[in-house]
Amino acid sequence: MFELVAEDLHAVMDEVRRRTFALVAHLDDERLNAPLNPIMSPLSWDLGHMAAYEDLWLNHRVGGRALLREDLAALYDAFETPRAVRGDLQFLRGEELLEYMAAVRERALEAPVGDGELHELVIRHELQHTETMLQAMVLAGIEPPSFHGPATVGGSGLEMIEVPEGPFSLGAGPDGFAYDNERPRHTADTSRFTIGRTPVTNASWQAFIDAGGYADEAFWSAPGWAWRVEHGITGHPGGPDDAPVIHVSHYEAEAFARAHDARLPTEVEWEKAAPQLEGVGAVWEWTSSPFTGYPGFTAHPYREYSEVFFGDRYRVLRGGSVATHPRVASAHFRNWDLPERRQLFAGVRIAR
Questions:
Q1: Domain 2-140 carries which CATH code?
Q2: What topology does CATH give the domain 160-347?
Q3: Torsion of CA 76, 79, 84, 85, to 10 degrees
Q4: Which residues contact 21 (CB under 8 A, 6 or more apart)?
Q5: Distance from C-alpha of 318 to C-alpha of 336, rounded to nearest angstrom
Q6: Residue 108 needs a FRET pair 20 to 30 A away by CA distance; which of 10, 26, 163, 195 works?
Q7: What distance in Å separates the CA atoms of residue 352 and residue 259, rounded to the nearest whole number?
């Protein structure tokens, strides 16, 4: 059984790494090493960070071996080196980077697998970083030729379905892999509500712009309006009329909902309604919920994955996106970010 599990996980690790390299195969060293945006990491930093994370968890903490490059520990620690300074650092580049990634992987294939939880953590960490890398590439206009936006949906985002009141069990159960913020599974009550059958489309968003939605302060929260004014936000670049709108901030999503006498769903409402909804997984969907721990939350395997972000600053997103690998996306996966962020592959589904 151990050999079968190890073989399967190692095959997935190899597949994911090939996918990662394919994602940046069209870029030269200059594009890989340069900061593409002030709020994003250089792509080469992300690649080195993936390997350092793998070395820490599989080789050091599982395998009991010294880090391959102790001198890189702080450089690739996301908390020690925030995004704003990563472009100025002497992170690994070119052949040195590729050699480090290969050497870490060679050792990782020798690490004991056990129940496979930490191998799965490393796999999903890389998959999540490739979505972040895609965000950076889209901001710079250098995304892979094979990458396209979300598929079309059969609605405008304004058609609603009803969800009855009553209790609902949400979160991940005790079996299988899940992040600490997805547990424990617990029961919550909702009142009756309605929710968009599909995410809001570009056509509906353009109608919001044409009706003066970005000029009417009444639709915006106070911080949202201040953000809009400070950054001169007057609209959205749009896309195919019948595809979900993408790259909208929480502030914009909230304003759109208010303009339609609606609101954003809570994450409990979103998870309860998800099995009935069209377009789940096309775009991340902002909720009104702040990112906090579920009742009985326990940090695992380290506080910095979730707990340090708890509080009122971050808002939860649900559902996954066209850039999210299916291994990561699930009905109970919780993404989170600051309400002003637009680089995410995020849209909106309204509720009442």
A1: 1.20.120
A2: paralog of FGE (formylglycine-generating enzyme) (3.90.1580)
A3: -50
A4: none
A5: 8
A6: 26
A7: 12
Token look-up 């993408």 returns 246
The three-state secondary structure class of 329 is: coil
* Amino acid found at 218: A
Residues spanned by CATH 1.20.120 within the chain?
Answer: 2-140
pLDDT tens column, 287-333:
999 999 999 999 999 998 999 999 999 999 999 999 999 999 999 99
**Residues 188, 309, 143, 244: what is their CA dihedral angle, to the nearest 10 degrees?**
30
Residues 6+ apart with CB under 8 A from 256: 200, 205, 208, 213, 219, 248, 348, 350
Name residue 97's amino acid.
L
The model scores a pTM over 0.90:
yes
Q: How far apart are CA 307 and CA 214, in angstroms?
A: 34
Number of H helices, E strands in the chain: 10, 8
Q: How far apart are CA 176 and CA 28, in angstroms?
A: 39
- Say which amino acid occupies 133: M
